[in-house]
Amino acid sequence: MNILLIKNIIKKENGMEFFTLHDFMTYSKGITYLIMGAILVFMPIYWLYLTDRDD
Amino acid sequence: MTKDKTIAKKQLFTPFNVITGIIIFIGVIITILRFTRGIGAVTNLDNNNPWGIWIGFDLMCGVALAAGGYVTSSACYIFGLKKFHSAVRPAILTAFLGYALVVFALHYDVGRPWRLPYPIFYSPGTSSLLFEVGLCVFLYLTVLFIEWTPSAFEWLGFKTLRAWVMRLTLVLTIFGVVLSTLHQSSLGALFQIAPSKLHPLWYSGYLHVYFFISSMFAGMSMVIFEGTLAHKWLHDKMDETHLAESEGVVLGFGKAASFIMMGDVGIKLIGIAVDNNWHYLTTGWGLWFLVELVGFVLFPAILYGMGSREKNTTFIRIAAFWTVLGIILNRLNISVIAFNYHLPSAERYVPSFLEVGTTIFIVTVGVVVYKFIATRMPILHEHPAYKEHH
Question: In sequence order, what are the residues at sequence separation of 6 or more whose Cβ sits closer than 8 angstroms to the Cβ of residue B221?
Answer without folding.
Answer: B253, B257, B300, B319, B320, B321, B323, B324, B327
